[in-house]
């Protein structure tokens, strides 16, 4: 019996064998931004486990774009070479792989989480963080406001990283524009207090993201999908907070500029009411954006069972189910889900005796 969760999806020229996606999750094991054996096993095992699309953890476009000194990068050729065997292994398992490009902005320059995740000053090997405005996104430091020239240079960093992503063999690119990182710092009025062409009006606040999308679309193959992860809401009661209606409006603009998929996450500057953090609590964001714009969407948020995932696709709430912690707990969730849903899916030959 076929199930919607295991139906294929075409995105430009990209063929996904099912609707299950591995969500980006930071690993903090990449000195100098280099991936290695950990990522080969970490990402490769989820490909063996049957997901249709693997999305890497947030990968910085410059050294100053990192959150910690141990985040992955794609700002030099050594990093391209390090990514290539990981990409090739994932693809050899029948999965596709996208790199999530990212800049932490004012949330950068932190120690490893195991060392306390505290801000690291330049004298300690860190750097001066920069954001849309001079705001404090860390209790121990205030970011500097980016100049227009620096903003334009950042767009160039993303463009060059996209070129390297193509060289590394990635099937698609996702921009991380949520969770309080650089693009979110620009489009949310909670952190953008500028009065120039990158601040004030809605169009000005989304300008950096739109210009980056345009720059990337201009240098990657037309057949290569471009995805964006947004924070659909700010989880704030402040009148200037970002709301779902803003995300719908932004998604429509991004679609016009060649974005193929919007994954609707949330938060970054605040936390949700814990009483409302229940299974599927963020799925309505993807559903609303999809219904209002027609763009393909990915749903996230406490999705833990095959039945939940299948219902999201069957009901038209989203086009992709993006799993994070559940895939940490069970790399073979897709194979288990197929069995639970009485659906056939390819199983790696060495594992067939178990299925």
TrEMBL record:
InterPro entries membership: Aldolase_TIM (IPR013785), OxRdtase_FMN_N (IPR001155), YqjM-like (IPR044152)
Positions of the NADH:flavin oxidoreductase/NADH oxidase N-terminal domain: 5-342
Cofactor dependence: FMN
Keywords: Flavoprotein, FMN, NADP, Oxidoreductase
Name of the protein in question: NADH:flavin oxidoreductase/NADH oxidase
Organism the protein comes from: Hymenobacter volaticus
């Amino acid at each position: 019996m076929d199930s919607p969760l295991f139906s294929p999806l075409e995105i430009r020229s990209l063929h996904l064998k099912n609707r299950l996606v591995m969500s980006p999750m930071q690993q903090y094991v990449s000195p100098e931004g280099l991936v290695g054996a950990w990522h080969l096993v970490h990402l490769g095992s989820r490909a063996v486990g049957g997901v249709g699309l693997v999305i890497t953890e947030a990968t910085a476009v410059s050294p100053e774009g990192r959150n910690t000194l141990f985040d992955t990068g794609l700002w030099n050729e050594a990093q391209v070479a390090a990514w290539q065997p990981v990409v090739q292994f994932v693809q050899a398992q029948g999965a596709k792989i996208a790199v999530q490009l990212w800049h932490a902005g004012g949330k950068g320059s932190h120690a490893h989480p195991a060392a306390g995740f505290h801000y690291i000053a330049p004298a300690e090997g860190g750097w001066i963080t920069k954001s849309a405005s001079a705001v404090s996104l860390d209790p121990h430091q205030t970011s500097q406001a980016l100049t227009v020239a620096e903003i334009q240079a950042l767009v160039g960093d993303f463009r060059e990283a996209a070129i390297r992503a193509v060289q590394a063999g990635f099937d698609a690119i996702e921009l991380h524009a949520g969770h309080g990182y650089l693009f979110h710092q620009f489009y949310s009025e909670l952190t953008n207090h500028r009065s120039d062409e990158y601040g004030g009006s809605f169009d000005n606040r989304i300008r950096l993201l739109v210009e980056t999308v345009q720059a990337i679309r201009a240098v990657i193959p037309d057949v290569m999908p471009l995805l964006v992860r947004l924070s659909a809401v700010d989880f704030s009661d402040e009148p200037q907070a970002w709301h779902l209606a803003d995300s719908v409006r932004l998604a429509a603009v991004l679609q016009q500029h060649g974005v193929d998929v919007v994954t609707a996450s949330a938060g970054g500057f605040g936390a949700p009411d814990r009483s409302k953090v229940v299974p599927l609590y963020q799925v309505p964001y993807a559903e609303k954006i999809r219904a209002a714009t027609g763009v393909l969407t990915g749903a996230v948020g406490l999705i833990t069972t095959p039945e939940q995932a299948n219902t999201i696709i069957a009901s038209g709430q989203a086009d992709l189910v993006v799993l994070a912690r559940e895939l940490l707990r069970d790399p073979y969730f897709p194979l288990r889900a197929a069995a639970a849903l009485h659906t056939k899916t390819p199983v790696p030959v060495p594992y067939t005796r178990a299925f």
